[in-house]
Amino acid sequence: MSHRAVVVGAGLAGLLAAAVLSAAGVDEVVVLDRDDLPEGPEHRKGLPQGRHAHLLMTGGMDAVEELLPGAGVRERLLAAGAHEVSLSSGMLARTPEGWLRRWRREGPVMVTCTRALLDWVVRTAVRERTAVEFRRAAAVGLTGSRDRVRGVRIAAPGGDVDLEADLVVDASGRGTRVVGWLGGLGVSGVRERAVDSGLVNASRVYRVPDGAERFPLTIVQADPYVSRPGRSAMVMPVEGGRWLVSCGGSRGGEPPADPEGFLRYTLDLPDPIVGRLISGAEPLTDVHLSRSTSNVRRHLEKLPHWPEGFVVLGDALATFNPAYGHGMSVAAFGARVLGRELDRAGSLTAPGLARRVLRGAARSADAAWTMAVSQDVLYPGVRGGRPTPGDRVLTAYTRRMMKAATGSYAAASAIWDVTSLRTPPTRMFRPGAVLAALAGSPLPPSTEPPLTPEERNVLRGLDRTGV
């Protein structure tokens, strides 16, 4: 008897879920998406955050490679011009507690490229290594009952049509209609929580100036501890000899869309280094704005009743403020849970499979959710949450750890391990990390970015601001 799985959404979560299903031996895997999928690394409307900075952390990259074994996704990305950036040595980071030092030691890395390139490389690998079918179609609902989903309803010119499936995966992203779809089956009572700092992202692409090709990724982080809107900016190397420059501002501190205002915004940050860099670089695009940035958690795993044959992954389950760079990694973790549960169950129609996947995917999102929300609730004007006593305790400890990390390798490595999603947040509470936090930084705080002499010359040569 043949089986069919339908995946709604051709973003990273959907692509990886489709790869997992195909590898598990499902006879027919169909991926539905509203967009015409581009044949190259091009932006598409279905990814509202696609033009802004995306970071694929160590944990996420490892999961992608595990889900597409032998595809060489990392190598393909690097060959296409993506960059691998060491958190310990390849990054200039000004935190609310000061500049992090750079250490000549191995540490976790992140892959930087445009989201368009990442999706294209993964989509190409899936097409080459599986028999997954991609269809342009808009899913408008589920078929079946409150006990079992039987397929997907698709919009069509002559009237909606039903596509039967043994398993449906909702990987439709931020725009998911999963709550309404479940309601149509008689499943209600979904608890949702949204924490919205009002973050607006503004991004522009520049040509990397001659001589600046090896300049490190540079970020001035937002400060949630000063009772003012958070404001940040990052210069990130991407493919094609370009810099992707992204600014972010929470409610009341939003970046503007005009080029002059964009530059002023970067220069008005606690350190003007981003503005100084781009003041001497050639812009290649206009400034693109996006406001779809809130943290949203749909606690589907807590429903007392869940239909067989239906799984929710990626942003459709938990969406994070993109400033923290965790969304893509969490999507990969959810797909990995799907693969592991399919291996254990041995069948696409095994009783309880969908619920086990849902619970595992929700657990895999917990760390990223906690990190994002515990910061966002501190910004003025945030909607959907206030700091709890637990948040305040965690914040105080995190600040102490971050202050120590400005001059302590032990503290910095604990933070890198957690933010790269290589280890769970409990890493911050291991004895060595706690001792590092209590001891503080053995080195005095640095008031200047930790640049090499060559990098300092590059910055000086680019600076047109007179700052």
TrEMBL record:
Residues 442-452 have a biased composition (Pro residues). This is NAD(P)-binding protein. Gene3D superfamilies: FAD/NAD(P)-binding domain. Keywords: Signal. It holds the Pfam family FAD_binding_3. Residues 453-467 have a biased composition (Basic and acidic residues). Residues 5-342 form the FAD-binding domain. It comes from Streptomyces virens. Residues 1-23 form the signal peptide. Residues 441-467 are annotated as: Disordered. Coiled coil: none annotated. The lineage of its organism: Bacteria, Bacillati, Actinomycetota, Actinomycetes, Kitasatosporales.
